[in-house]
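for the writeup, i need someone to sanity check this before i put it in the appendix. the sequnce is what the collaborator sent (i think, or maybe the updated version? ugh). structure was predicted straight from it, no edits. if anything looks off just tell me and ill rerun, i have time this weekend
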Amino acid sequence: MKRYISPSHFEKAFTPQRQAGFTLVEMAVVLVIIGIILGAVMIGRDAQRNAEYTRIRQNFVSQWAMAYNSYTQRFGVPPGDEARAPKLMVNGANYHGPLGGNLSTVTEPPAICTGEAGPNMGRAAESRQGFSLRELMLRAGVQLPQGRGQGMEDRYAYLDSNGNPQEVKICFQWNRPGTFSGSGNVMVLTGLTPDLARALSSAIDGNTDASSGSFRQAGIAQGAGSEMGLDWAANNTQVYGSEGTATETAEGTAEAQVITVVAHYKMNQ
């Protein structure tokens, strides 16, 4: 018996089949999904870095401010001062100038640090035995923040925006009247990238400028007068060791270690 093949079956059997591909709509959907994924990755990185900045403020900077206040409350004087003849200065025991008169012209005593002063601090650390920040706090029974570990409680390691390790280091010192970054007893923080400095300033003062409030950039050319506050004199496009400005943009720094600045955080006693 002969089998009948309809023309439609014959055409399907011998007509070349076209390969299926993506339509323009499907391509657009894929591109949108890729964009969302990339955006989520970038947002995740920023969120992770902001969370780290919050930990630095809460677990390190604020804890050191509390340690300073605990020491001052127990002894009635700031670290390094003499309770029997107080000068109410950090390291006042090693200050030999007058307390009366024009203090804006005197030479301040060295800073109280653990070991050497931090990078670009502008003030040497006290080298006399018994005036190490760590030793002073431990002798007073003050609990130290965790920091980088035992013996390095004055330091905190973190990653900058290019993924390179950086280190915050703290010291304490007294600034004479007229100091742009604030007079009186201050915590000195070195090793701050510009965005970390702004994050700390925003959390402590409620603004991100570098020349007003209790958290300021060391050496900034303007005090906290009636003029508008200045931005931090560096940005994250500049490499470590360079002379930064707030508006300058450097090239080729996507993988370089980011420039760091020094800040002074005014203590309340």
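The chain has one domain: 23-266. Residues 23-266 form one domain.
thx in advance!!
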